């Protein structure tokens, strides 16, 4: 039960399936039942936050996208820097960020190497 292949991982995969299917409401519902901190894998934690950001991006909730990208960065900065989904999500935020959150989005883009420092 405490391995990477336990119930938490099963729920993480279920959330991923809903994300890939574009079923953001169901994916977010599953995410609400996951305590990702119980996963011994930092990579799975980072992936959880990235996919949660994608689910919010599907709903055009940019503030939530940024919040979860920052959580992904905290759990796995190297993974975030080279992850294609993360880079796509940050590019999208750069294009449509409201002035109130644009500085945080630009700073994140700089940290992952999308824009020059």
Strand content of the residues, in percent?
Answer: under 5%
* Morphology: globular
Rounded Rg: 14 Å
Number of strands: 0
Q: How many domain regions?
A: 1
What integer is the average pLDDT? Answer: 91
Biggest beta-sheet profile: none
Helix content: over 70%
Give the termini distance in whole angstroms.
44 Å
The ordered H/E elements are HHHHHHH
Low-confidence stretches: none
- CATH class category label: Mainly Alpha
**What structural class results from the helix and strand content?**
mainly alpha
The CATH architecture classification is Alpha Horseshoe
The CATH topology = Serine Threonine Protein Phosphatase 5, Tetratricopeptide repeat
Q: Please, how many helices?
A: 7
Explain this structure.
The structure is a single chain. The radius of gyration is 14 Å and the shape is globular. The longest helix is centred in the middle third of the chain and has 17 residues, at 42-58. It has a single domain, classed as Serine Threonine Protein Phosphatase 5, Tetratricopeptide repeat, CATH 1.25.40. 70% of the residues lie in helices and 0% in strands. The chain is built from seven helices and no strands. It is an all-alpha fold and 117 residues long.
What would you say about this model in short?
The chain has one domain (7-111): Serine Threonine Protein Phosphatase 5, Tetratricopeptide repeat.
